Amino acid sequence: MFLISNRGEAGIRKIEQQHKDQLHSIQRDTMRILRAIMHFRDHMQTCLEKENLVDQAQALTELGSITKDKVSLLFEP
Question: The organism sits in which domain of life (predicted)?
Fold first, then answer.
């Protein structure tokens, strides 16, 4: 009986670790995507400024940045 209990607990720990690993991978990928979006936005802003579309460039500036604090809200339990 004791052996079966340990196997069950080990199985649960293994699944918990897999879930933690998956969550970490999702968080890492999300940060990469958000950085890419911010990079794209910065390039768009530069292009708009070069084309003398100041109002549109200003609108992009006013969006603000996606900070780690804002992103951490996505992953709160």
Answer: Eukaryota
